[in-house]
Each structure stands twice: as structure tokens, then as C-alpha cells.
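Running this now, will post back.
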Amino acid sequence: MAGLDCSKIKTGFINQVCGKPAIAGTTARVILLNYSDVDKSKSVVTDNVISSLILKTGATGYEVDSLPNATVGSDTINAGTYLKTHQHNVVVRIFKKSEAAKKFVNGLTNARVIAIVENNDTGDKGDTKYEVYGWDSGLELTEITVTTEMTDGVAYQVTLANGTIAQEGSLPMSLFDTDEATTDLMVDGLLTKGSKP
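Update: finished.
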């Protein structure tokens, strides 16, 4: 029996829009879902695109309002001895010092979440407007910056990332169903019972 060969590429890419650069940055909101609240058996993922994201009964997502371009999502490669994995990171900046903000940050201390980041660049049909970080293994609070200096007005800066053991198998997945309007409705539906910190 032949062994699995993960060293071969399976697709190519042609940049058909010369001279039109991607639009950097994010909108003012990020949506956090408790990792254990996502019903992966009912959610639909095809070729790293989530077309249906289902929460368990009674569960809800939580919207975090920040400022435009203040949330930064990133992905780096971890080169292991046998395999390479992806390390997802989401930096969330909060610009208001309040008890509600402190309660939100304290709640992240031992939480395991999935983050939906809303990009400024929506792609051709809205297919890259939302990217999902931590789908495979979840994100946890790995770094926090709180100072009385509040540099650039940032009261709390939290970094959510994969843990040292559990990583991701791909780039952040896109959240997209049919078109941008349908996808917006799906995302808003995750917040039905949610609240803002």
C-alpha cells in the first residue's frame, strides 16, 4: 500500500486582475463563538469554505465592537518534525476602559473560542468578507496588554491564538453561502441572543 504524499500541490492560481491590489484591514467588529457551542456535525465545510455554521441549541455568538482596522488576523506556519501546521492569531483592541470591557477580557482568560473576522476586502462575490480563525482547534487567550498609558487609546489588547499543542490544518476558512447578502444574514443569525461587551 502506498503511503500518503502530502508534498504535492493540487491547484494553481492566476491573478486575473492586474493592478488591483487587495484591500487591507478589517471592519470594526469581530464575532466570537464558544468553541464547544459550534455543532460541527451539522455545519457544512467544503474546500475550506464554511457554507453553513450551526450553533448548538441555546448557544449564541458575541460581537465585539472595536474600531476599523483595529482587529488583526494572521496565520503563520509551524514547521514540525513530520508535518507543518498553521498558527492562527487574532489581535483584538478595545478602546474603552469600563467594567463591561474588563468583564469581557476576564471572560477570555480560560475560554476557547472561534473568531469570525470581517475583512475590508470582500472578494469577488463577498466570498472573503468573513474569515474564521480557530475552526479546527479553537483559539485561547495567549497574550494581553493592559497599561495606564493607553497608547493610541488602546485600553485592552488581547491576542487569541491556537494553543501550543493544537494547531490548524489550513489558512483561516472563509464563511460564505451563495452571496454576500445571504452570508451577512447567516452571520447576523449567530448573534440572535448575543450581546456586546
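The chain has a mean pLDDT of 90. More later if anyone needs it.
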